[in-house]
């Protein structure tokens, strides 16, 4: 019965098998053939018993009454109970068989069409279970799958750049803050009487340094000159021509305007401009380049695929599903042709990406040596000290020049407060940073560049990475070639296309 049942489902016969009576074919003729899904006849209704008659009591004249009257001889002679049970069992088996046939028939009729005449891409000579609506949904899913793979493939590179960009920015912020504290400590230790006023100028100067490094459009020459312009009235009031009270605001403004002509600090401002420009600009450009790399990755992670590419991705990834091949993968050569065609614009990105990494290497080299940002910022206090010493030494001559330009000093009845800077706390931080600065910035920069070199050919080999790691079938396994499920012998197709001069984009259009 089970073997016959399995054969019947496989061949999809519309008529049920012939009925075989349990006592043999001669005992009762088989029922006439009917439709495959004819309903079973309803069982006969039991006769209505008279009122007052018990359900289990036999009716007079019935076979059961006669059998009971004969001491049960009738039940033993005809065996009717066993035959009825076997008859019902056979009927149930036939019903199950009919349901299986119905399911198989409906599944084939409802899920599979003969040739998919309404399909645009996933056409096939074999029966297909796809409709036009399903094909559209598959095409959307295919593009989303590739974009997800692109994001997954670039996730490590993106994390490498973004993590180091944040780390370098944090290091520069710490470096600027400690250089500011170091310079303020100089005034508190050596020029305590003017430390409060000078500290304000120092804070403004290093604020400009941070704005420049992090991308604000200002000039290093401008904010260095501004620092020494605002510092000169303070130095004149406390070093060159000290008095019991401070100079007036109008007189301080005259000194600020005359500083570049009087040149009280000699060549120190010019030297500081050169050092700041040659040290801060590479660091600023380095941070901007890291942010640019993140933008490039974000852009390539969300490509807009052409119509030909979308159709090719659909045929490669989801057309096998229309034939029931839901676990199939494309052949390697076929996958490379499709993905390289879709990523044809990546060839231009690849050239610029190689140049981008080379530029980062050059910037990293420019950030080392004499004009290293750590060296310049943490030694800025030395330049300020040289400028103050030079003004102190040339004090009498500077006083005469100031009197010629601004007149004698006009003072106000107030006096500058003393130093309120917590130098002990900040000196500890400076000492710690000085010991670890080479490890936290220079070595980290070299380590980052060495890791980034590994991604020099990232965009050029992206198609090989996607097909080799995710999309294509392994060597020797059956694979999808765009038309049928075959052995993975199609790796050579890509190389044949290269030999024959067929571009990957043309291969996509032909797929």
Give an account of the 3D structure.
- This protein has about 500 residues and is mainly α.
- It has helices at about 1-10, 65-70, 75-80, 80-110, 130-190, 195-215, 220-240, 250-260, 270-300, 305-315, 330-340, 345-365, 375-380, 380-395, 395-405, 425-450, 460-470, 490-500, 505-510, and strands spanning about 480, 485.
- It has a two-stranded antiparallel sheet.
- It starts with a helix and ends with a helix.
Q: Helices, strands, pairings?
A:
Elements: H1 2-11, H2 63-69, H3 73-78, H4 80-111, H5 132-190, H6 195-213, H7 220-240, H8 249-262, H9 268-300, H10 307-317, H11 332-342, H12 346-366, H13 373-378, H14 380-393, H15 395-406, H16 423-452, H17 462-471, E1 478-480, E2 485-487, H18 491-500, H19 504-510
Antiparallel strand pairs: 1-2
Helix pairs in contact: 5-6, 5-9, 5-10, 5-14, 5-16, 6-7, 7-8, 7-9, 8-15, 9-12, 9-14, 10-11, 11-17, 11-18, 11-19, 12-16
Briefly summarize what is shown:
By secondary structure, the protein is mostly helical. Helices cover 65% and strands 1% of the residues. It has helices at residues 2-11, 63-69, 73-78, 80-111, 132-190, 195-213, 220-240, 249-262, 268-300, 307-317, 332-342, 346-366, 373-378, 380-393, 395-406, 423-452, 462-471, 491-500, 504-510; strands spanning 478-480, 485-487.
Primary descriptors:
rod-shaped; mainly alpha; 65% helix; 511 residues; 2 strands; 1% strand; two-stranded antiparallel sheet
């Amino acid at each position: 019965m089970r073997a016959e049942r399995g054969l019947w489902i496989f061949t999809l016969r519309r008529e049920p098998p012939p009925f075989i009576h349990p006592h043999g074919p001669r005992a009762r003729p088989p029922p006439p053939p009917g439709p495959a899904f004819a309903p079973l006849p309803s069982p006969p209704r039991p006769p209505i018993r008279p009122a007052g008659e018990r359900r289990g009591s036999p009716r007079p004249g019935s076979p059961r009454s006669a059998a009971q009257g004969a001491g049960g001889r009738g039940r033993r002679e005809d065996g009717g109970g066993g035959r009825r049970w076997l008859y019902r069992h056979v009927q149930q088996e036939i019903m199950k068989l009919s349901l299986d046939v119905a399911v198989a028939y409906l599944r084939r009729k409802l899920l599979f069409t003969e040739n998919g005449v309404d399909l645009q891409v996933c056409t096939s000579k074999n029966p297909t279970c796809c409709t036009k609506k399903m094909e559209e949904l598959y095409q959307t899913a295919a593009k989303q799958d590739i974009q997800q793979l692109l994001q997954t493939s670039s996730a490590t590179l993106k994390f490498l750049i973004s993590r180091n960009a944040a780390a370098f920015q944090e290091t520069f912020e710490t470096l600027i803050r400690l250089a500011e504290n170091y310079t303020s400590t100089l005034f508190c230790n050596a020029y305590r009487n003017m430390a409060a006023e000078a500290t304000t100028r120092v804070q403004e100067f290093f604020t400009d340094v941070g704005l420049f490094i992090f991308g604000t459009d200002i000039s290093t020459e401008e904010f260095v000159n501004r620092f020494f312009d605002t510092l000169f009235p303070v130095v004149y009031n406390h070093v060159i021509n000290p008095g019991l009270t401070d100079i007036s605001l109008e007189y301080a403004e005259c000194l600020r305007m005359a500083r570049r002509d009087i040149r009280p600090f000699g060549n120190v401002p010019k030297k500081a401009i050169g050092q700041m420009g040659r040290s801060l600009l590479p660091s600023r450009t380095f941070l901007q380049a890291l942010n640019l790399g993140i933008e490039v990755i974000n852009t390539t992670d969300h490509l807009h695929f052409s119509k030909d590419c979308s159709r090719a991705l659909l045929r490669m990834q989801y057309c096998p599903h229309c034939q029931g091949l839901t676990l199939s993968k494309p052949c390697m050569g076929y996958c490379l042709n499709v993905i390289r065609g879709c990523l044809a614009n990546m060839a231009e990105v690849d050239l610029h990406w190689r140049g981008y990494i080379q530029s980062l290497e050059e910037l990293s080299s420019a950030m080392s040596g004499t004009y290293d940002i750590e060296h310049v910022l943490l030694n800025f206090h030395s330049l300020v000290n040289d400028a103050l010493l030079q003004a102190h030494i040339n004090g009498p001559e500077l006083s005469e020049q100031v009197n010629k330009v601004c007149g004698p000093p006009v003072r106000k009845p107030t006096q500058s407060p003393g130093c309120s800077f917590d130098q002990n706390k900040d000196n500890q931080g400076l000492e710690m940073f000085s010991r670890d600065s080479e490890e936290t910035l220079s070595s980290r920069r070299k380590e980052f560049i060495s890791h980034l070199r590994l991604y020099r050919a990232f965009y050029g080999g992206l198609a090989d990475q996607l097909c080799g790691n995710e999309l294509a079938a392994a060597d020797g396994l059956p694979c999808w070639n765009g038309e049928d499920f075959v052995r993975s012998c199609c790796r050579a197709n890509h190389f044949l296309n290269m030999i024959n001069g067929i571009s990957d984009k043309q291969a996509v259009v032909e797929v």
